[in-house]
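Support reply, case 0932

Customer input (verbatim):
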Amino acid sequence: MTQAQERPSTATPATRHHQVVVVGGGNAGISAAARLLRALPGTDVAIIEPSNRHYYQPLWTLVGGGDAKKESTRRSERSVIPKRATWIRDAVTTFLPEENAVTTAAGARITYDYLVVAPGIQLNWSAIPGVPEALGKDGVCSNYSYEYVDKTWEFIRTFKGGTALFTHPATPIKCGGAPQKIAYLADDAFRKNGVRDKTNIIFATANAGIFQVEAYAKTLRAVVERKGIDVRYRTNLVEVRPDTREAVLRNLDTNEETVVHYDLLHVTPPQSAPDFVRNSPLANADGWVDVDKNTLRHTRYANVFSLGDASSLPTSKTGAAIRKQAPVLVKNLVAEIQGRSLDASYDGYTACPLVTGDGKLVMAEFDYDLKPMNSFRIDQTRERRTMYWVKKYGLPRLYWNGIMKGRA
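Our regenerated output:
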């Protein structure tokens, strides 16, 4: 096959079989498929992905902070599908691993020899009463939505003072630093606009600390102190009352609830594995695809692999983590196809470019043991303008031209 093909979703289920089926056309699915086709060019690979749009989501923090345009983060899905892969524009609804098959929303049954599960993470907006109705209006915004990310900057830019509340939920989330990064950018914008002295910034996080790696947490605590941000640990947003502009916060240790009036509210939604993963035989007790943390192969099904946000890998859910997971998964998948032992091992590497203000960034990199794993020969615990440039200019180019092509 010389180019990506979009198969009609009405094809007869009995006729659909592929050697490798990849579920998900995001960062994880595309990078794994591209690498596999480079390693074994003749492999029959199908990617099941319903969306016709592909997004570079790490830049949404800067969109919300007024330093990037959201349109620059979007491309067509077809443009990132590897040329020798088959694109099935459909959505998986059921996994049948005992039958080496999946079923889809269009009623198709697709069988496989090997399966790569990479559908990403599910944003559960409705888990917080009031959020779906409030989003995008009257100061309520979120960088986790392409539709509303530019509302974040609109509300920050036009803010006249009052209470600006930023939240981090009590679930795993993609890009764990994103909820606090936008608070730092908002602080800078408020100062430039002359309204910071009339503003109370609250960062309500369900976590017990500002960051899980102490080397970087020390810097972030200093940032919070310098900016005068009221950080409320072990605090979860449980309800929004848009009519009165009130947010209900619950302390996770005492269960005590506090009602905060907001003038700006940035919501990070609770997140989980997609429902069709959580309710499948592939899931562990917490709903994530149950894989070995080093080989990325499923713990019960030898021909199933997973990477990215939907996997059970005990590391931060970031694009940087996927960049290190994809080579390991592909090496081990190729070994499985060829009947060899699985020797490649993932060490839990992840990275979180922590924007601490306009033109300032701490490049946090670490492994399963929370040990820093620096890529640059500098002190990465310090705020640096050069690292901000890496995030704004370098990483998007690496993503589109390297990672999506299976080259980086």
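We compared this against your earlier run and they match. Two observations from our side: The two ends are 24 Å apart (CA to CA). The chain has nine helices and 22 strands. Please reopen the case if you see a mismatch on your end.
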